[in-house]
Design a protein that fits this description.
Layout: E1 7-11, E2 18-22, E3 36-39, H1 42-51, E4 55-56, E5 74-75, H2 79-82, E6 91-95, E7 100-106, H3 109-118, E8 125-134, E9 138-146, E10 152-153, E11 157-159, H4 162-165, H5 170-198, H6 201-204, E12 207-213, E13 230-236, E14 258-260, E15 263-269, E16 272-278, E17 281-283, H7 287-292
Parallel strand pairs: 2-11, 3-6, 3-13
Antiparallel strand pairs: 1-2, 4-5, 6-7, 7-8, 8-9, 9-10, 9-11, 12-13, 14-17, 15-16
Helix pairs in contact: 1-5
Length: about 300
């Protein structure tokens, strides 16, 4: 985002303190077309939230300037983004009963590195954004930022349409932004839950994909409808037989064996902690069966470099 753009702050009543509004682009690069779509029912949203590994804080986590970094004392870390293990980043999520859709876009590696270089040490840097479209024509873009300790920044920076930016009625403007931030939370946490679920082969097997026409409301410059195109429609199958631990720990999955994807862990050492990467492994009471049959784990390669 252009640091010289005109912005204004608005106080919120939803726990985030304030939001920064702008009419300028948060990211000006090329955005690819939507490739996958999923409908978020109440049941799906609830289950996806259970999948996410969260850290509980005694009070809302704040940055050095006192701004809230996570809502309701929940800390979500961006290890999957840094490690490059996002299995399906380009998913558009639809909440039909609210007539709203959202899309989380994660920037490419070079753009994220540029964002890190342009920010002061200790400040959150841009790693992507969330597009939120209400009633098929009102579009908001919310910055997705992260600190160097991999904690997501929850303070809203929102690109808003001109009519909302210029609203003189502050109460109406506040209510609109508070609704946007609630959608931002739903879409981001649901998207994150999808990524975590797809990294686990037991859960990944419950996702089904089919090719369907994409309902694109856009028109070409000559006011004709855009050419018809297709996307993969994602459906989450029955997961009623899967339960999750309420506290931090392993998922309680009722399966004979499953593959635990490689993951990061903080290991205690003499002078503090160091981050180590745990290679993937089979787990479950019948894990020996998987090892004997040489079942192929669905693990993605993680490459590291000096940066």
């Amino acid at each position: 985002m252009n640091n010289n753009c005109n912005v204004k702050f608005i106080n919120l009543n939803n726990g985030y303190g304030h939001a920064m509004l702008t009419t300028e682009e948060i990211f000006e690069g090329e955005i690819p077309r939507v490739k996958e779509t999923i409908t978020l029912s109440k049941d799906v949203k609830k289950k996806l939230l259970e999948v996410i590994p969260k850290e509980k804080a005694p009070e809302p986590f704040r940055d050095n300037e006192g701004h809230v970094v996570s809502n309701d004392g929940i800390i979500v870390r961006g290890d999957i983004i840094v490690a490059g293990t996002i299995p399906s980043p380009d998913i558009e999520m639809v909440i039909p009963d609210m007539h709203v859709r959202g899309r989380v876009c994660v920037l490419d590696k070079e753009s994220i590195l540029d964002s890190i270089r342009n920010e002061k040490e200790g400040h959150p840097f841009l790693i992507g954004f969330i597009d939120i479209i209400v009633l098929d024509n009102i579009k908001f873009r919310v910055a997705l930022r992260m600190f160097d300790n991999l904690v997501f920044d929850w303070v809203p920076i929102v690109k808003v349409p001109n009519p909302i930016y210029q609203l003189e009625n502050e109460q109406a403007q506040r209510e609109a932004i508070e609704e946007v931030t609630s959608f931002r939370d739903i879409f981001f946490l649901s998207w994150y839950g999808i990524q975590i679920a797809l990294l686990n082969p037991v859960l990944e097997a419950r996702f089904h994909r089919e090719t369907v026409p994409y309902e694109d409301k856009k028109r070409t410059n000559n006011k004709k409808k855009a050419p018809k195109r297709y996307v993969k429609k994602i459906t989450l199958g029955d997961i009623s037989d899967i339960t999750f631990a309420k506290e931090k720990g392993s998922h309680q999955i009722k399966e004979p064996f499953w593959w635990v994807s490689g993951h990061w862990r903080n290991q205690k050492i003499k002078n503090g902690h160091k981050r180590i990467f745990i290679q993937g492994y089979w787990k479950g009471i019948l894990r020996e069966v998987a090892e004997e049959k040489n079942q192929e784990p669905r693990e993605r390669v993680i490459e590291f470099d000096e940066e």
